[in-house]
Amino acid sequence: MSQEDLGSLIKRFRFVRVLDSNPQTKVLSLLGTIDSKDAIVTAEKTHFIFDETVRRPSQDVSDPRPIFYHCENEYSCINGIEDLKELTSNDIYYWGLSVIKQSMDYNPTAKLNLIWPATSVHIKKYEQQNFHLIKETPEIYKKIVKPYIDEMAEGGRLKWVNNILYEGGEAERVVYKDYKEDKIEESFIILPDMKWDGLSVDSLYLVALVYRTDIRSIRDIKPEHKEWLIKLNNKIKSIIPGCYNYAINPDELRIFIHYQPSYYHFHIHIVNIKHPGLGNGIAAGKAILLEDVIESLNYLGPEGFMTKTMTYVLGENHDLWGRGLDKETAKQLEEDGIPKTPTIVNGFAFNH
Ligand code: G7M
């Protein structure tokens, strides 16, 4: 695969407008064009470096001190201060601004993501929007959501997944691969998620992609998948701590799936429990813990999640909202006897 490099693409980026700006996550998403095709650049300020774990050189076996110890390096948030300006102080409180030493390898300023050429689905996803709580019954799934998933599976949206699984895409970043040609349904690969800057285990974010293609979302999971999911979950917890020098423990991994996901090929999110997630990615109404998925299979019938009402958060820009979830949601609220939101005109509420 020959791809142009990020640097030369970014140089040709022509700004159009800001899609979203989030001071809490320190993420800015811009829409622009590169060679007249839509492009989305997302910039995320990186986290601070505060210490590093260093191995003691040639430690004597009788030395009781731990083999690894913590120390500040020259880029840490205190050692790295190059300039400091106090703004105000009051009693025991002081605050100011600082410039901290930056370096590409140890302390870069930001992580940049580029999607190019970006589709309208991408643009709508990154744009600020209103969100709604959806109660997706099995009937709504069949009528509105399944046809959408069928369409999404056909477009080129899963190219990045197939690149990783079969074309050596991101090969140098793969953390673990269990691939057996005669056992495709058990095969999977784990690698850093595009969201992770890879700098700090505090924000560790990995994704496990399975090779099987018969599960497009949680809706396709049935009791017959229970043993496979248990094995997968245990494998993730056994392998990952060792891959990161045991800086993280198995019970510090938040392992979950999304509904609705952005990509309808079964994959699992593996995130440091400390990481609050970007946007609503780990919030209730989006993330479902893998342990809960497995446990639910004990109670759901042979059709598994196909028979469950799934409640989740969806943005108005999502195609499913305009394809009927808007009307179904309004209908359900009416059936449940929940009053409509009045229209406010000049401070007066009107019911219609
Ligand atoms: O919401 P959903 O469960 O579909 O999440 C998909 C995940 O895949 C997100 O956390 C994305 O950041 C991640 N992801 C998306 N793409 C296009 C890539 C990619 O090309 N490489 C990697 N490593 N992760 C990706």
Ligands in the structure?
A: N7-methyl-guanosine-5'-monophosphate
Helix/strand order: HEEEEEEEEHEHHEEEHEEEHEHEE
Taking Cα atoms only, what radius of gyration do you get, to the nearest Å? 24 Å
Coarse morphology: globular
What is the level 1 CATH name of the largest domain?
Answer: Alpha Beta
Helicity range: 10-25%
Quote the CATH topology of the largest domain: HIT family, subunit A
Query: What class, by secondary structure content?
Result: alpha+beta
Polypeptide structure, described:
This protein is α+β, with helices and mostly antiparallel strands. The chain has helices at residues 6-11, 120-126, 138-154, 159-166, 226-243, 290-296, 319-335; strands at residues 14-22, 27-34, 37-45, 52-55, 68-71, 81-90, 93-100, 110-115, 131-136, 176-178, 188-192, 205-210, 253-258, 267-272, 287-289, 310-315, 343-345, 348-350. Strand 1 (14-22) and strand 2 form a beta hairpin. The protein contains seven helices and 18 strands. The longest helix is centred in the middle third of the chain and has 18 residues, at 226-243. Helix 3 runs antiparallel to helix 7. The strands form six sheets. Strands 10-11-12-14-13-15 form a six-stranded antiparallel β-sheet. A four-stranded antiparallel β-sheet has the order 1-2-3-8. The protein folds into two domains: 6-110, Scavenger mRNA decapping enzyme, N-terminal domain (Phosphorylase Kinase, domain 1, 2-Layer Sandwich); 129-328, HIT-like (HIT family, subunit A), CATH 3.30.428. N7-methyl-guanosine-5'-monophosphate binds at residues 160, 170, 191-195, 207, 258, 261-263. Residues 160, 170, 191-195, 207, 258, 261-263 line the site of N7-methyl-guanosine-5'-monophosphate.
